[in-house]
Amino acid sequence: MLFAMRSWCSFYFQARRSRSRFIWSLVGLGSVILISQTQAGVFSLPHLVNPGQFAIGFEPGFVMTGGAAMDINLKYTHGISESNNLTGIVGTGGGARQFRIGGSFSFDLFPDLVNQPGFGIAIQSLFVQLAGMTGSLETTAIPYVHKSFNTIYGVVEPFLAVPMGLVLFDGFYRNLSTVVVGSLFEYNEHIRSVFEFGVTLNHTQTYLSGGIVYYH
Questions:
Q1: How far apart are CA 76 and CA 123, in angstroms?
Q2: Mean pLDDT score of the chain
Q3: 40 lies in which domain range?
Q4: What is the C-alpha to C-alpha distance for residues 216 and 206, in angstroms, rounded to an integer?
């Protein structure tokens, strides 16, 4: 009888431990799915800043999936060379993704010329504070293609980009990918506006964003 009671107690506590591990595994998986619903804003990356000059951009956005939310980013871009820019990013937002800080480095592999579009790639890394949780690290490669056109309304520079990468959180990771279409619109040599639309492909969010960039 005593042996039977001991066996039953051992089975009961093992079952409880297994159940607890299963529940915490689901919680961890749910957290990763939540935080991996991210966006990778392209904004003014395709338009290079001349060496020694800088640009300051203000980028509000509206997340349309995974719970509607607004966010705002401030971006400072410095011209390193004829084909490289360095950008610093700081911002905040509602929903799951709140404070974020990081940067990107752009490589303009083929310049935008009369007879060819421009093509390049940027490497971006962001630390993002999550609502009620610890932070995540989002690292993405952003290949892009762009082309400037002179119109009666000024210079228009449409672009297509496909940000892709990983988000890391508490020992978990998720693949990220988005398709982004947008354009820059020149008002004068110092001011351009930006509009873009990102569509989720894998563990990201569909979003609309725009903003204004001052070049100096």
A1: 15
A2: 83
A3: 36-215
A4: 32
What is the pTM for the complete model shown?
A: 0.80
Q: Quick check: is 26 in a domain?
A: no
Give burial (CB, 10 Å; 0-12/13-18/19+) of 11.
Answer: exposed
Tokens for 98, please give them: 């709140």
CATH of the domain at 84: 2.40.160
Contact 184, 215 (CB under 8 A): no
User: Does any domain span residue 25?
Assistant: no
Task: Report the phi/psi class of residue 189: left, alpha or beta, with left for phi > 0 and alpha for psi in -120 to 50.
Answer: alpha
Share in percent of the chain as helix, strand, coil (round to 5): 15, 60, 25
Q: Are 99 and 92 in contact (CB under 8 A)?
A: yes
Output the six-digit token pair for 188: 């004068």
For residue 67, what are the CA distances in angstroms to 34, 62, 200? Answer: 10, 10, 14
* Nearest 10 degrees: Cα torsion 210, 137, 180, 144: 110
Tell me the per-residue pLDDT of 94-113, one tens digit each, with 9 for 90 and over.
766 678 999 999 999 999 99
CA distances from 129 to 18, 25, 71, 216 (A): 31, 22, 13, 31
Give the pair of three-digit tokens for residue 150.
């002179």
